[in-house]
From TrEMBL:
Gene that produces this protein: nnrD
NCBIfam families, alphabetized: yjeF_cterm, yjeF_nterm
Record organism: Celeribacter persicus
Name of the protein in question: Bifunctional NAD(P)H-hydrate repair enzyme
Function: Catalyzes the epimerization of the S- and R-forms of NAD(P)HX, a damaged form of NAD(P)H that is a result of enzymatic or heat-dependent hydration. This is a prerequisite for the S-specific NAD(P)H-hydrate dehydratase to allow the repair of both epimers of NAD(P)HX. Catalyzes the dehydration of the S-form of NAD(P)HX at the expense of ADP, which is converted to AMP. Together with NAD(P)HX epimerase, which catalyzes the epimerization of the S- and R-forms, the enzyme allows the repair of both epimers of NAD(P)HX, a damaged form of NAD(P)H that is a result of enzymatic or heat-dependent hydration.
Segments forming domain YjeF N-terminal: 10-244
Family: In the N-terminal section; belongs to the NnrE/AIBP family.
Amino acid sequence: MTELLTSAQMRTIEQAAIASGKVTGLELMERAGQGVVEAVFEEWPELAQSSHKAVVLCGPGNNGGDGFVIARLLRQRGWAVEVFLYGDPAKLPPDAKVNYERWGAGGGHVHRDWETIYKAEQALRLHMLGASITVDALFGTGLTRPLGTLHNELWHAFDLDTGPIHRLVSVDLPSGLCGDSGRLLGMEKFAVQSEAKGVAPSALAATLTVTFHCRKVGHVLAQGPIMCGKVVTKDIGLSSGPKLPSVVTILPKGCVFDVQAPFSGCIAKGTGHKYTHGHALILSGLSGKTGAARLAARAALRVGAGLVTLGTPHEAVTEVSAQITAIMLTEIDAPEILTRVLSDKRLNALCIGPGFGVERAGEFLPHVLAAKRATVLDADALAALAESETGFADLHENCVLTPHAGEFKRLFPDIAAKLAEPPTKGPAYSKVDATREAAKRAGCTVLFKGPDTVIASPNGRCSINAAVYERAAPWLATAGSGDVLAGLITGLMARGFAPHHAAETAAWLHVEAARSFGPGLIAEDLPEELPKVFRALGA
Ligand SMILES: NC(=O)C1=CN([C@@H]2O[C@H](COP(=O)(O)OP(=O)(O)OC[C@H]3O[C@@H](n4cnc5c(N)ncnc54)[C@H](O)[C@@H]3O)[C@@H](O)[C@H]2O)[C@@H](O)CC1
Ligand SMILES: Nc1ncnc2c1ncn2[C@@H]1O[C@H](COP(=O)(O)OP(=O)(O)O)[C@@H](O)[C@H]1O
Ligand SMILES: [K+]
């Protein structure tokens, strides 16, 4: 599991490294600048062939310090570099000041008349510089408040109504983006309007973002991906090892994990007969609505549950049995029958919700929860839960709730309202904060869907399965894909995976199956693609 860090955690790691005496802040800044230059040439090898022009926008903190290093390194390669400083050089933090001075000592000029940048002459000047790259080293992890008028100035200076800045390279984080939440401070309205107009969500929406040590939470949540363009992570010598203490020692609590490919040994079936791998019961809706549960059942079987049974109401038996083969069927017309069926203890995982009907779900829920099995509550079961009088009281730690944003809002209206509030200062309230709060309140694992799927459990464990950048899976936005996800989690829990682990693994496999199938994907394709994904994992 790789961590995704918050800005405060990154600072803690940096300070621990400096305190250990193995590295200085100045060395880290030099490596950061070098990392950006390396990433630029890796991204655009043609720029390494000859000298070009660059514009570097430096801010008042250490992000600006990285900018001065980049300017110096590019100039050493013969580039023409124009540096603009937003802030007072006298107030730069020590390491940034050293690099400001090194830039000056080497004959570099710094445009300090920032307030005139938006005047026509300057705008034209910037525009005519014909820079091959523009570097955004204004703010990184130290952003605490909105960019305010600075944003408008940049928008006009770069004449952005005509298109985004060409090859905008962002240092660490696009300025204006909160590193903990992926939200644009003070600019969400602007971002939504620009998205509708088809223009960039901010003047500083990057083509390439180069970050250090590891990705920050804000790179993958909310507007992070659209703002960063592409994220390259450069090692600056902070990795744990013989020299430095490990992240787990430095940050014992509160890490957010980036869900990685499951180990083949964890997916492989090993020895045992079908009952060793569990028996999942998926509750089906009424006739005409059985497709969702059938999708979930197929996914549960493909993900390796030993047996899968569809609990089907009598009037839908013909419809369901006409469309299943390896999946079994048992008639369940009423909640009491469910309780009887569940006297078979080999049925060890349950799924309720897909196509089930909200009212029926309300009737079945108390029986489902009283059975204390590993249980996925999805779709209509979530709506029923939101309306239930007992609320979350009957949920137990082996439950997994899988809301999309609409369902999340019904279940946790106050938390959703907090998340919807426009962020005005950093760190802003994030989807991670919201999901953690929801899991704590519900007393079980919550998987909050989206391209940035967040999974949290009551003990504070939190992971993100980000279907963004190189793992983008836009074809998952198709009817029924959520039902498949519910089936995957149920199947894995039948196999004995703990709820949080099942949710993480299912979310990863879901995205991987979509990416493996590619364009044209519909929900039915997802379970059928799993064998290919498993083979690639070496399972
Ligand atoms: N943490 C680390 O391990 C490393 C950090 N480095 C760089 O240092 C950056 C963090 O540096 P800092 O902590 O100095 O933070 P920043 O450089 O991101 O910005 C901090 C400064 O901006 C001011 N500020 C914040 N929001 C503002 C706004 N909206 N308008 C005007 N001023 C605003 C703050 O008061 C502060 O003076 C990282 O993003 C990275 O680029 C690198 O040099 C290498 C190592
Ligand atoms: N653009 C996207 N990129 C990646 N995953 C997506 C995207 N849109 C939706 N998904 C995923 O697809 C699934 C959709 O689930 P849901 O909204 O419940 O749909 P349905 O009810 O039709 O099954 C979720 O797992 C969600 O995370
Ligand atoms: K930046």
